[in-house]
Design a protein that fits this description.
Number of domains: 1
CATH architecture: 2-Layer Sandwich
Strand order of the largest sheet: 1-2-3-5-4
Protein name: HIT family protein
Number of strands: 5
Shape: globular
Organism: Rhodococcus sacchari
Oligomer: single chain
Radius of gyration: 17 Å
Length: 142
């Protein structure tokens, strides 16, 4: 995609601090990190959102993310954990419309977190939602 910054990084037309470069995925440091070591893993093939992402590309992104998370924990960075985060759509907080998986190294008290109020639905509500979603998943598979 011509105006996609991540596609420009893949093509070598935009700078990036690359951590991993493989045939189908690339990982690089986030230019606005939440914590030290925060990086992004992206498929090299453009997909604006998850609905456009071929499953094999998603599997490669996640596999690279798992390897990098293990490497983060083994690195000299002070890390107690790693969050993986993927925003799909504006309402989910997606700002760059090329699928990307955030890897955010964590330390106790680092200030990063998801602020949300958990809901407390009863089992009937959960079962009804699960039923509706099962039907949607089956329809999507077809």
């Amino acid at each position: 995609m011509s105006n996609c910054i991540f596609c420009a990084i893949v093509a070598g037309r935009a700078p990036a601090s690359v951590v991993l470069d493989e045939p189908d995925v690339i990982a690089f440091m986030d230019i606005r990190p939440f914590t030290p070591g925060h990086l992004l893993v992206i498929p090299k093939r453009h997909a604006s959102g998850l609905a456009e992402l071929p499953p094999e590309d998603g599997a490669k992104v996640f596999a690279a993310g798992q390897r990098i998370a293990a490497a983060l924990r083994a690195s000299d960075l002070p890390i107690d954990g790693v969050n993986m985060f993927l925003a799909d759509g504006v309402a989910a907080g997606q700002e760059v419309f090329h699928v990307h998986l955030h890897l955010v190294p964590r330390r106790a008290g680092d200030g990063f977190g998801i602020v949300a109020r958990a809901q407390s639905p009863n089992r009937t509500v959960l079962d009804g939602t699960a039923s509706a979603l099962r039907a949607a998943v089956e329809a999507y598979r077809s």
